[in-house]
Write a structure and sequence with these properties.
Elements: H1 3-11, H2 29-36, H3 45-51, H4 55-65, H5 68-84, E1 89-93, E2 98-101, E3 107-110, E4 114-122, E5 128-137, H6 142-147, H7 156-171, E6 177-183, H8 187-193, H9 195-202, H10 205-228, E7 233-237, E8 241-242, E9 245-246, H11 250-270, E10 274-278, H12 287-293, E11 297-299, H13 312-319, E12 324-326, H14 331-336, H15 339-353, E13 359-360, H16 373-386
Parallel strand pairs: 1-6, 6-7, 7-10, 10-11, 11-12, 12-13
Antiparallel strand pairs: 2-3, 3-4, 4-5, 8-9
Length: about 400
């Protein structure tokens, strides 16, 4: 069974050959060196080179995103790394593209107005990992937002990136499932403003509706285009909460976000495509809304929220027939926990969630630079050892 078949079968709540695996983000140079012999740090030097050229650098970056061979050269080692790291899914990107480079290679402003700066982390072995961190938004008010060039779902770079990923999937004999990812309604909206400025927008319902409708229309059309090009699974980046609760009231989600999410899921399903929603945080107050909208997979079921009821095992018992789950192994445990504890939790995830399908193995957030190779290996070796169907006789 190939990676695409494996993932889709699990989402359908059927048993594939083995439990599929997915990490939304891996930023860890030590792991890259372990599996590939080198890290991908050199790719960030292009930002420094182009940023010195001012507007011409912005134009050259955009041209690069329109060149399928250049895009494939970026994706290919990443997909090979994911396959070597025992994962089934590699992500291509259809939004969140850089629009304006910051000086001196510091980072960029993306098409949603988010300021992303490069941060370097050095582990105990001297491995350097670069992460693009969020540093606020450029919109001070609604007028700033309206003056920004709107997102165009028909910009050719989006479908080029999608097709580049699918071509690599075929070149790798379908051992990796290339899944397109798209920014959605909530996370990208508030981050373009920053929470304080976005709170002021929420106090003005007409302005708030315009922002959410803009994002909803873009995301809906983007998903429509992808499904018309035979996408079978689309990931939506759309954090709804943080560890202590939601970013805004359930009422506002139901008013501004979920009508669009429902339309997006309906459109995907009409074209035989599934929707995976990536959202960090405690979603307990709105999980039934998410299910009602038609989301097929929820990732990553963050295990470190303040709400003891937002527990993947409890959620699975209550909603496991309506929703597939992805992730959950604590990144804190992966960074500083005991190997035995990692192995025991990995076993429990497989033992309780994997039978009859409906579960994709992975961490409860991402694989960051603090995760050591031995802890990552402990986690995924358990999946490889006990994650073959039928699931049975997994020791405590």
């Amino acid at each position: 069974m190939n990676a695409e078949e494996r993932v889709l079968k699990a989402i359908e709540h059927e048993e594939p050959d083995k439990v599929p695996a997915f990490e939304s983000t891996i930023t860890n140079a030590a792991l890259e060196k372990h599996y590939m012999g080198e890290s991908g740090e050199n790719q960030y030097k292009i930002y420094e080179t182009l940023s010195k050229l001012g507007k011409k650098g912005d134009e050259l970056l955009k041209k690069g995103l329109l060149n399928k061979e250049i895009v494939k050269n970026v994706f290919k080692p990443l997909y090979k790394f994911h396959k070597a790291a025992k994962l089934d899914i590699g992500l291509s990107i259809c939004s969140l593209f850089p629009r304006k480079l910051l000086p001196n290679g510091e980072g960029y402003i993306d098409e949603y107005g988010r300021i992303m700066k490069f941060e370097k982390y050095v582990d105990k072995e001297g491995n350097v990992t670069t992460i693009a961190g969020y540093y606020g938004g450029i919109f001070k008010d609604f007028e700033d937002y309206e003056a920004w060039e709107p997102l165009d779902p028909y910009w050719e770079g989006r479908i080029i990136n999608y097709k580049a990923g699918k071509e690599i999937q075929k070149e790798m004999n379908d051992e990796i499932f290339s899944v397109p990812s798209v920014g959605a309604m909530m996370e990208c909206s508030w981050e373009g403003f920053g929470l304080e400025n976005f709170s002021k927008i929420l106090a003005k319902p007409k302005q708030a509706k315009k922002v959410f409708d803009d994002r909803g229309k873009f995301t809906l059309e983007m998903v429509k285009i992808l499904t018309e090009n035979e996408a079978k699974l689309v990931l939506l980046w759309d954090d709804y909460g943080f560890k202590n609760g939601l970013f805004m009231s359930p009422r506002n989600y139901r008013k501004y976000v979920f009508p669009w999410l429902k339309r997006i899921c309906d459109t995907a399903h009409k074209n035989d495509c599934k929707i995976m929603l990536h959202s960090d945080g405690d979603l307990m107050e709105i999980i039934e809304d998410i299910i009602a909208c038609g989301v097929d997979v929820l990732n990553p079921i963050e295990p470190t929220t303040a709400n003891p009821e937002y527990d993947i095992f409890k959620l699975n018992k209550k909603y496991g027939d309506k929703l597939a789950f992805s992730g959950n192994l604590s990144p804190i445990m992966l960074a500083i926990g005991e190997i035995k504890d990692i192995e025991n939790h990995a076993k429990r995830l497989i033992r309780e969630l994997a039978p009859n399908g409906g579960y994709i193995f992975g961490s409860g957030h991402s694989i960051n630079p603090a995760v050591t190779v031995d802890r990552y290996e402990a986690m995924y070796n358990i999946k490889e050892k006990f994650g073959r169907y039928p699931i049975n006789n997994i020791p405590d």
